[in-house]
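Sample intake sheet
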Amino acid sequence: MAPQYKLTYFNISALGEPIRFLLSYGNIDFEDVRIEREQWPSLKSTTPFGQLPLLEHNGKVVNQSMAIARYCAKLVKLTGSNDWEDLEIDSVVDTISDLRSKIAEFQKEQNEELKASKKKQVIEVTIPFYIERLEEKVKNNDGYLACKKLTWADLYFVALLDMVNVRVGKNIIENAPSLQKLREKVLALPGIKAWIAKRPKDRV
């Protein structure tokens, strides 16, 4: 039987990986369609808003990575048990997204001197600021980022780590033991472990 879901994204991890993690965690079969960069210009106009990722289900197509991830989190029961818990989880996820965006900013700089300066600021100031606080959240939530239990915030964070580490050229959680343990727990989840074993290698 054909998969119920079709995920279309570039042939990298990046913003598609949290969605792949969530679907894999729930053992939800999905078609993992990967677009090469050179294909994108001819395909862009065929998408709803000229963006990837896209999730297709029952003939309907939606964009926006965060909205898709949140939907998948509901599918696999990794949301909060009430509205306040959902708020806590969303707050953490948006914070992680802010960190990712700040790291991505320096890569867009065309001037090499400015790029090096911005990268230095990100590595020496921005990353420590965020990681220190995320580390405290894990310490205060029994080893998780929110609500003292496994939620989609944990999968979201771990799914983005490889991409972030490659972009900055270092392991951003090397001095954060609680976050390291969280990463190990997430990667040991059966569905995630199976996904990592079969996913394309070396494309972050």
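Comment: The chain has a mean pLDDT of 95. Helices lie at 17-25, 40-43, 65-75, 83-107, 112-140, 152-168, 177-188, 190-198.
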